[in-house]
Every structure is written in structure tokens, then in C-alpha cells.
Specification:
Elements (H helix, E strand, L loop, with lengths): L5 E5 L4 H12 L3 E8 L6 H12 L4 E6 L22 H6 L9 H16 L3 E3 L15 H14 L1 H4 L6 E3 L7 H10 L23 H12 L11
Parallel strand pairs: 1-2, 1-4, 2-3, 4-5
Length: 230
């Protein structure tokens, strides 16, 4: 029997990253899940990531600590107000204050380091360029640029022993399509959490992330199992 290929999967505990993990698993990869305690304003997503990793039987779940709160510049890591009750048009008008400076670049760099140490050629990230909140590091051209850099920046890449591939299975899917795909793969979305500003473990229902998630479930004709305050 051939050995399974290893993949590092960035896992936030949210809907998109959980679906990306399910897709990687369905493709036969041995999963090494990577999450971050980066100074975000709540720990709900870390607990969600733990639940998802356990339920989906990953080989290893690594949680790294990074202090992005000391840098600030985002409503998720600083004392800034999280936007609420915005229309989809308002969300798409500009890069929102919930954007965390260089977050995906930082996260992918850690994933790259772990992948090289594991001798894994594959990294999965659940970025999405359709139903997303205007983040520049969710675009296809950004991922392509990072992949080129990754293969120039690693010993394994320079020596020709490994060609790193960054998989973005959700990048051209709507939120409804992502949810439908996840349900088809047996994803338990009650384990996930997407809210930018939860109270305890209850989602606010009004931030951009909650609204995009709820819109996706409606369009997928499915019921969101998450608890909402509103």
C-alpha cells in the first residue's frame, strides 16, 4: 500500500477552512492542520478549530502563538469597532477594517515552514475571491505569487526535491456552493464558527462574516446550525 501524501491545511475553525480541510481529506491527503492564536479578539475560533480537527481525524493539529495584537491595525486585533449590519454592496466597496495586515502571508509562511519540515508538497487554504469581504490576500494572483515565492525560498525547492503547491479549492466558489460541497462531504457545520464579534460562544448575526455565512446557507437551501444572538 502506498503511503498517503501529507498536506498542511490552514484551519481557522470557520466554515471555509473546514470545508477546505474536508476537500483535502476527500482527495486522500494525510492532514496536518495548522491554526493560530494570533491575538484575535476572541478564542471561539480556536475552540472551533480544535473540535473540527478532532472530529475530522487529522494526523496532527498544531496551534501556533503569534502576537499580531502588538501590531494592531485591524478590528480583530485592536480596539476598533467591528462593522455591523452592512449590505453586500457596502462590504464590497472597500477593504474593511476587519482586514488583518499581512495575515495570510504570515499564516502561509508558517504553513510553508511546516510543510518543508514534513516533506509535504501541498498546502490547503480556504480563501475565496467571490463571497468574501474584500481582502487583498484572498485573490488568485496573490496565491500564485506566494506559490512562486515559496518555491524560490525553500531548500527543498531550490534543490529540486519538492515543488510546493498551494491548493485553493474554494477560491472561485460562492458561499452557497462551498456549503453545498461541504454538506456533500459530511461536514458538521455546527462545529464551526465564523463570527468576528461573538458574545461568549454565540455569533452576533450582524457582522460581515455572519451575514455572508447566513446568506450562503439561505442560497444553499440549508439550515445554519450555529447559534445567533440576532
Amino acid at each position: 500500500m502506498s503511503e498517503k501524501k501529507k498536506a498542511v491545511v490552514l484551519l481557522s475553525g470557520g466554515l471555509d477552512s473546514t470545508t477546505a480541510l474536508a476537500i483535502a481529506k476527500s482527495e486522500g491527503f494525510e492532514i496536518y492542520a495548522l491554526s493560530f492564536r494570533y491575538g484575535q479578539r476572541h478564542q471561539v475560533e480556536i475552540e472551533s478549530a480544535r473540535r473540527v480537527a478532532e472530529a475530522m481525524g487529522v494526523e496532527k493539529h498544531l496551534i501556533c502563538d503569534i502576537d499580531l495584537r502588538s501590531i494592531g491595525g485591524s478590528a480583530l486585533t485592536d480596539e476598533l469597532e467591528v462593522p455591523k449590519a452592512r449590505s453586500v454592496e457596502e462590504m464590497a466597496a472597500s477593504i474593511p477594517v476587519t482586514y488583518v495586515p499581512a495575515r495570510n502571508t504570515i499564516f502561509l509562511s508558517f504553513a510553508l515552514a511546516w510543510a518543508e519540515a514534513l516533506e509535504a508538497q501541498d498546502i490547503f487554504i480556504g480563501v475565496n475571491a467571490l463571497d468574501y469581504s474584500g481582502y487583498p490576500d484572498c485573490r488568485p494572483e496573490y496565491i500564485e505569487a506566494f506559490e512562486r515565492m515559496a518555491n524560490l525560498a525553500t531548500k527543498a525547492g531550490v534543490e529540486g526535491r519538492m515543488h510546493l503547491k498551494i491548493h485553493t479549492p474554494l477560491i472561485r466558489m460562492t458561499k452557497a456552493e462551498i456549503i453545498t460541497a461541504g454538506i456533500g462531504l459530511g461536514v458538521d457545520y455546527s462545529l464551526t464558527h465564523s463570527c468576528y464579534d461573538p458574545v461568549d460562544d454565540t455569533a452576533c448575526g450582524r457582522c460581515d462574516s455572519c451575514q455572508l455565512r447566513l446568506k450562503g446557507f439561505r442560497e444553499a437551501c440549508a439550515t445554519d446550525p450555529l447559534r445567533y444572538a440576532e
